[in-house]
Amino acid sequence: MDIAAITIIIQLIFLEGILSIDNAAVLGAMVAHLPNDRPIPWPSPLQFLEELSQHVLGYQREAALKVGLLGAYIGRGLMLALASIIIHIPWLRIIGAAYLMYLAFHHFAELYHAHCAEAGHEAIPRIRGGFWSTVLAIELADLAFSIDNVIAAVALSDEFWVVMLGVAIGILVMRFAAAIFTRMIDWEPALQTGAFLLLLAIGAELLADEVWHVHIEEMTQFAISASILILTVVVARTPLRIPVRLAARPLIWFSAMTQLRIEATVTALTSPFRRRERSTETDTW
Question: Which pLDDT tens digit goes with each residue over 92-145?
Fold first, then answer.
C-alpha cells in the first residue's frame, strides 16, 4: 500500500465522517422509539431465531442499528459498483431526496396528530412503525444517503478497494455515532425533531444540487447540520420554544396534509390487491 492510497483512505474516512454526522443523527432518531428491553418480534415460522438473535443482535433498538449497519455495507457496496451508472442517472438522486423529505414530513405529521389528541380534537389515529417497518425505513434512508456519499467518495479515487475501505471505516464511525445520538435523544428529546429537520435540509441540498445545480461543499453541509442540532437544543431549553412552536405550526400542518395525501394515493393504488386478498380469505372460510 503506497502513501498516496493511505492519504486517500484518510480523506475518505474524514469525508465519510463529515457526511455521516447527519446520517447518524437521523438513524439514531429513527430507532429511538423502539424498546431497549424487548427481543426482536420474529414471525411465527421464525420464532426459533429469537434466542440466537438476542445474543447476536441484542434488543430491538440495538438490533435495528446493527441490521442498519449491515444494510449500509451492502448498500454502499452496491452503490460503489454502480457508481459510474448512478452519476449519469439524475432522477435517482431526486427520488432519494424526495424519500428523505417524506420521512421528515411523516415525523412532523405525527406531531400534528399527537397535538390534536392532546387538545381533544378529532384526528386520524396514527400507529408508529414497529421493528421491521423501522428497519425497512432505515435501509431505504441509507440507500438515499449512499447515493450522495458514494459519488463524493468516487470523486477522490477510482480504485474500488481504496474507496470501499474508506467507506467501510466511515460506516463504522456512523454506527457508533448513531448509538451515541440515540442516548442524546434520551437526554434531550427535542434532538429527535432536530434530526428530522436535518432530513429536510439534506433533501433540499440534494434537490438544489440536482435540479438547480447549486452545489454546497461538504464542510458547509456539516456546518448546517451542526447548526440545526445546536439550535434545536437552544430553542428547547430557552423561552424561544414558544414563538418557534407557533412559527412551526404551518410546517406541521402541511406535513400532516402531505402525509394524508400520500396515504390516500397508496390506498387507492393498493385497493385492488387488498380486495383480492379479502375475497381470498372469505373463500377460505
Answer: 778 888 877 888 888 888 777 777 766 665 544 444 567 888 888 888 887 777
Q: What's the CA gap between 259 and 263, in Å, rounded?
A: 6
User: What is the identity of the amino acid at 132?
Assistant: W
- DSSP output for 136-158: HHHHHHHHHHHHHHHHHHHTT--
Domain total for the chain? 1
pTM of structure:
0.68
Q: Which of 12, 23, 5, 10 is nearest to 150 (CA)?
A: 12
Q: Which three cell numbers stand for residue 179?
A: 448509538
Domain that holds residue 146: 3-284
Written as nine digits, the cell of 90 is 439524475
40-49 mean pLDDT: 84
How many Cβ atoms sit within 10 Å of the Cβ of residue 149? 27
Residue 236 has pLDDT above 70, yes or no: yes
Q: What integer best gives the mean pLDDT of the chain?
A: 76
159: cell is 480504485
Q: How many CB atoms lie within 10 A of CB 251?
A: 16
